[in-house]
Automatic annotation (TrEMBL):
Record keywords: Dioxygenase, Iron, Metal-binding, Oxidoreductase
List of residues binding Fe cation: H21, D23, H81
Cofactors required: Fe(2+)
Protein name: Fe2OG dioxygenase domain-containing protein
Organism in which the protein naturally occurs: Arabis nemorensis
Length: 113
């Protein structure tokens, strides 16, 4: 029997953070198969960290802007990852004006459980 797909929703204020971690809540089958994790970024830019170890000093960093999608699966499925910081007032003004979204970062993460 196949596990269901789910979406996790996180909202980060301008002081929001998320320490380096691995996503291990899915079924063993999903993890063994390297089923991807797919986060969508909406709103303010996040300084996103990732690496092979749970060590902030060794982690790579990339900025995820509004509209960015990051996919990690297969061999990279178990990377450590987290949010170092949120860059305040970096969301596109048209998004805030048209959607009435409050300032901050909305992250929608799709996973196969």
């Amino acid at each position: 029997m196949m596990s269901p797909d789910i979406s996790i929703v996180n909202f980060y204020s301008e002081t929001g953070r998320l320490g380096l971690h691995q996503d291990r809540d899915e079924s063993g089958e999903s993890i063994r198969k390297g089923m991807p994790i797919v986060p969508f970024s909406i709103g303010d830019t996040a300084e996103f960290l990732y690496g092979e170890e749970r060590d902030v000093e060794k982690a790579e960093q990339v900025e995820l802007e509004s509209g960015d999608v990051l996919i990690f699966g297969g061999e990279s499925r178990m990377i450590f990852h987290g949010v170092k910081s949120i860059i305040p007032n970096s969301a596109p003004m048209s998004l805030l004006n048209d959607s009435n979204l409050r300032t901050g970062r909305l992250n929608l993460t799709l996973r196969h459980f």
